[in-house]
Protein 1
Amino acid sequence: MTIRQRLTLYYAALLTIIIIMFGTLTYVVMRWTMIGTIDSTLVETATLITNNSRLLPVPGFGAPSRMEIELAPLDLFRASGVYVQAWEIVDDKPIFKESSLNARGLGTNALDPTMLGHHESVFSHHTVNNVALRILTVPIIQSSSGRLVGNIQVATELETVNRASKQLLIVVLASCVFAIFGAMMLSMWFSHRALVPIEHITQAAASIAGTNDLNTRLRWKGPPDELGKLISVFNQMMGRIQHLFSVQQRFVADISHELRTPLTAIQGNIALMKRYGVDAASLDDVETECQRMTRLVNDLLMLARADYGGITISLTPIDLDSVVIECLTQAKILAKDRQLDIHLGHFQPVRIKGDYERLKQLVSNLLNNAIKFTPDGGEIIVTLGSNHEQAILTVKDTGIGIAKADIERIFDRFYQSEASRVHHTDNEGFGLGLSIAKWVVEAHHGTINVSSEPKHGSTFTVTIPLYRPQQDEEIPPHQRPTRTRIPALRKMLEGDDE
Ligand code: ADP
């Protein structure tokens, strides 16, 4: 069953239930009201008659003495269309006493024989000579003894009420049928209207699937209701898919481009060696290019695995200062042939929860970039501190800086600014280092920012939440604070520069 059919069915069923309930209620209330009016006429008549009648003792022997009812003239008090009968109860047997003129035709037949002898006022229905009657039987009680002396029965025909009820029933049933039919038509129309935009979405999705046209967007002129929101989310999703698709295409193009250069170099060297025999320089070139490709593949593999969540990072308490010290020691070796002043600014031990190897990757990438993009004679300053919540690491250089337009893009994969390509023609980077750095920082719930001025230098700032030890927590021995190592490092950095 389609959604439209189901909606139609639900609407129609709901409306049918409501209409039937409403019809039944109208019928019942109308009938009650009409019978209520009749009942009050009957009560009024019976009250007038009993109030104006008297009980007289019949002289005789023995006790209790019989009482006779002296009735008020029945026709005087009866309302129009109301039949009245009076009955005496002698020895628990009803004896006909009198009736109003209009009830003479009944003779001594009671209006409702089953109710005679009742000690309380009671309403009943009875059919006499094929005429349906509403009857009120009221008792006549001797007040001194509480004995039932007689019954007055007042009745009226129910024909008018029955006829009116029947007509009302026909009207209610006819309008029910009509309303149910109308409700079905309306609900079909409404559900059709409500589902038209969904059909459009289906068609758009089908056309995208068929033609691979990611430019398709849906137009919505209606209000920003549920469907409006669905369409806006659909369009946003299409935008995102389109963006991801183009990123993917660019990514593949970039990888191909990056691989082409070393492959061409390797092919050239092999051709040379084939022609002139193996020589050490060509072999070195081939080795360098192979190493370059290996680095690229490793970086790509890591980012790809990070993307699909294939890398699990286990965060354990770590002294970030010891990571920085290790990376700085390596950086110093890397920059041994360069005229660079690498030194520490404010530097204090800070403990975070992190992954040692990944943090090393982060800090090395920042330091390597600083070394790479700072000309000889420049300065690189590393600081490490904290505020109440975060460890703060900065790597500041006085290098070529980054243009404003590039700042937003340097964390994108394969992005390398024009200035850095010019500065570094034999750049062995691929534009992946900062993407990896960003991923590492985010995996540590931290942030990475850069402030830079072209030709004056850049400052990369990393913040990572501080580690808050639980009470009585044991600190593993290899991660004890590195206070003693900081002065040694300062000395090493400064000593070498001299
Ligand atoms: P790579 O260094 O391999 O080119 P990265 O992702 O590490 O790739 O950096 C991307 C780009 O950001 C670099 O190519 C360079 O243009 C710019 N960049 C990064 N660090 C610095 C820096 N310290 N000074 C100037 N430019 C930088």
Protein 2
Amino acid sequence: MSRKPLLKVENASCWFDVSGPWLERVLKRQPPVKLKAVNGVSFTVEKGETLALVGESGCGKSTVARMLVGLYTPTSGQIEFDGHPVSALQSRDGKRLRQRLQMIFQDPYASLNPRWRVARIIAEPLKVHGQLNQAERDARVDELLLQVGLSPTDRDRYPHQFSGGQRQRISIARALAARPEFLVCDEPTSALDVSVQAQVLNLMKKLQRDLGLTYLFISHNLAVVHHVADRVAVMYLGRIVELAPRDELFSRPRHPYTRMLLSAIPDTAGTGKRRIPVAGEVPNPLNPPSGCPFHPRCPHAQDICRQVMPATLADGAAQVACHGIEQGWVTADLME
Ligand code: SF4
């Protein structure tokens, strides 16, 4: 695997104005209200790797996904794909860039037009990107159906005639139609039965090997992440609190939130590691806690945690944002 960063995200934020009607706010003299969905995240994704973004619902991971494919504009910060600003995706010249960067959504049924036959759904990106004549598009659709484990005879059927797993295969075929290099996968298996999830994940891994794809894989399910990821970024309330190689993160989690998430996975290996109960709820992002946003749930919080936001620092192969790790009162043996 080459080590060239294909995607570079630097201090990117995405804030939404949720103030309500302008006139009402002016009359009541209320200040604008900002929802800080993503707040200063930085990471790279190297060519050929899978970076997983994990965290509880509402932590901002889907907002990051939508910024990467140009569906949301960052409030601040930089996002570059192969050296080009992602803001160019929406420009006239961004066509080639859009072709190289595609997205797979969580709900395969909602993302497929129910009135279109499969062949039209899969061929649509080819028409949009102005590639190939009709006969060539037909041949490409057949090739894609085979590539995702379906049959060319499926081309004239409608989405409702397929199972959930098969519909997600159709979504993957559509995403692959224009021969992208980078797929942003937003919880691609979470709407599927557990038995079907493994089949779709294995298909995605095979496609990655065969086609040299790069994935940003978003999930709340750490077992799924362990199956697919090379590196893992853990998000909490719009920030990345830990980023580490997969095996490092699972065997030696540093951040107390990562430890809490891992504790929720059944100890099937019988390691006897101490369980840390998943306590409390994610705070309201409209009114985030001061200092470290995890402090109201953290069993190791001290005064500085309530007052000062921890910086992200390198710790071996990982990057972690935690005063306790920086100052030494949160140690690895807390998980033993
Ligand atoms: Fe816990 Fe403090 Fe570390 Fe935040 S900075 S995770 S509150 S120890």
Protein 3
Amino acid sequence: MSESSTLSQRSLLGIRGLTRADVDLIHATAREFKDVLNRPIKKVPSLRDFTVANLFFENSTRTRLSFELAEKRLSADVVNFSAAGSSVKKWETLVDTVNNILAMKVDMVVMRHPHPGAHHFLASKVEVPIVNAGDGTHEHPTQALLDTFSLRQSLSEDLAGKNIAIVGDIQHSRVALSNIWALKLLGANVRVCGPQTLIPKHLKELGVEVSHDLDDTIRWADALNMLRIQLERQGSEESVRFFPTLREYTMRFGLTLERLNQSSKPLTIMHPGPINRGVEISSEVADSEHSIILDQVENGVAVRMAVLYLLAQKRG
Ligand code: NCD
């Protein structure tokens, strides 16, 4: 565990800008907040007199609720904004929208935006810390922080040398990229597995193994992180374009109990949600004792509390 007590960054734009000490500090702080969340009174006054704006320019259920709960458990004041029904539809620019919100004395911005890099751009234009809650197909840092936190709690505190596979639509997944960075920082061996058409060509340059064989990956792995097929990012909500049919995808890359039983060791199964039951994961697996999917959701609040708290501290 590192000795550091502050983050190296003033915003959380991606895992890419973080150090190993940052990740350890966030996880250690999250452990303390997880204890708080299990008490009868789940609230601490850490962010009293602090206002956080949650700006969601893209759909979200879990991440948005998780951030809002984290903010409320820290006693922050919270304002919520979603692009639907806002002046974004009247051609207002991102910087103007955010500056107007900041003029109302907001201290921190949590944002989800469909454009990769939107957060980096905004961070160069405004003074307050920005937390990336997902930028298009690029990064989703708090998801990776909660995924690695969950793995450290359920698999092993030390992930060095552990074999972690990320399975599915790697190409369109911000969860995949952030998880790769985070797992590499923690010394894990990372493999991505999916159809050739859903794995970016240059991914090996990030130091990950690439496989197109789920059965082999099951035998290799200590944990599997199953991803959703991002149909909404494939240019069509109705038809699949990167493999022949969803049925064929499920036959090759869907995780079933029968397949899982090929492993000689107990595997940890993760999924960032929303799950497509019967596509990338069967109900039997999602609801089995292997699955830590709901632990991930629970841990998400504690990890986001840690991120908000540590960034607020940096602000002084
Ligand atoms: C993920 C996302 O939005 O990137 N979900 C989430 O944040 N819990 C993954 C997904 O949508 O499949």
Protein 4
Amino acid sequence: MTRVIALMALLLSLAVPAMAEPVANPVPIGFAVATTSNVALFGEEQMNGAKIAEAYFNAQNGINGTPIKLIYQDTAGDEAGAVNAFQSLITGKVVAIIGPTLSQQAFAANPLADRAKVPVVGPSNTAKGIPQIGEFVGRISAPMTDVAPNSLKKAMALNPNIKRVVVMFAQNDAFSASETGIFQEAIKGLGLEVVTIQKFQTTDTDFTTQVTAVLGANADLVVISGLAADGGNLVKQLRQLGYKGLIVGGNGFNSTNMFPVCGPLCEGILVAQAYSPQADNPTNKAFVAKFEEAYKKTPPQFAAQAFTAVQVVVESLRNIEKQTGKKITDMDLAEVRVALNKALREGSFVTPVGEISLTPEGEVVQKQFYVSTVKMNPDGKTGAFVLTK
Ligand code: 1QQ
């Protein structure tokens, strides 16, 4: 008898690892962005977009009747913070992770999720090489190869006499280093001359050395790849010390939270964008209306991309239920993670950033991009991205 019990216990213990671990109800989706540090200038906009998405999709019956729950984790601004956030979401049994904020963080944290077979949807990672991190890594944020050069063409249309270009970039940030390479190639492709390349750090606050070099170079155009805090201060000091020409900012300038940093001196910066609040599709109209109602302002790109990331996860989970005839919450977590990674690459989604899909490698396919000019309000702290004609 004792031998039978011992045998049964042994069989049970052997069976445990193979036993299905169901997905929780509501369905947990990890959302890991920076809500502290300088990078929170972006993360705050991402959180705003995510909260609208969570309420919106749950009001639309969630996953065919099962609600979703975003599990928020602060990544702060560095790699260690992103790694910790991802680790805790993976062990916290989420079906997918949306995040992190920076490409710099993605290169450190995404391999963890990839090894655990947890799909990652990058909401704002635009450096070259992100989808190639692994099979479980994808993004809905268009790479700067597709987006950034548009702003240079607009700058040339505004000032056909541009010849001498200064390029500046934050050398300690993977996105900025990637984007400046794309800018430099595009500048040469347009027949312009890069007269000097100036480097800085995202932690810098004093840019006197770099600005002096810009003024000495007699440039018609300054092209900056940095993040919102450093980028804003750099623009401010360029203007204060007398630079009068056009300024093109990269994706790190795509936050209205940069406006209080350069204040009235943000006026006129040109920025290429992967989102326009004016985009004419039903999801964007609903998103803009909800966002304006909640926050009394127009949604910025990072909020729209955060909403989009939640949307592609929700719609892919719905698609899995449709295809299998099973409820997500009756399925095994590991099985759902794998099925979700596949479904993300098979769907087509009408989102605030337009109709998008992901390639098998996880790269976003997006059709439309925009260029906007910063217009500051008389208060000198708020302003808007106005589509450049
Ligand atoms: C990246 C970016 C940043 C500007 C996101 C906030 O594009 O790190 O890839």
